[in-house]
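Re: the 123-residue chain
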Amino acid sequence: MRWQVWVILFVAIVAIVALRYQSTRPLEALVTSPPTGQTVSLKKRMIFLVTLERKFHRKGWLASLGLEGENGSVLKIYWESINLPFIKLMLKSTDFIQDIREMGFKRLVINNGKQKWDIDLKN
């Protein structure tokens, strides 16, 4: 009977450690191309941002987007209903990642009010 308690305790600890590792491991964009879009102006990034936000809203995604950092090189997305599985799906979308890299963004910061994900675009 005591050994069963120890086994259950051990399995619980392993599960907690595994979940903690998954939640703290940084997200990465899968890219194979070299850095691009470094000469894109702030004005063009702002136009891209407005266009992207409109696309999000047309899909029913109530997100607000913004720029931050040197020359607007950080794309910020605030969306209350976004979650980690959807973010991982976005990162696998090569078109989305390629588009934001071509605009010269270096990082993507996503926030849902409870969690924040900071993604290096390797740009």
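Residues 29-120 form one domain.
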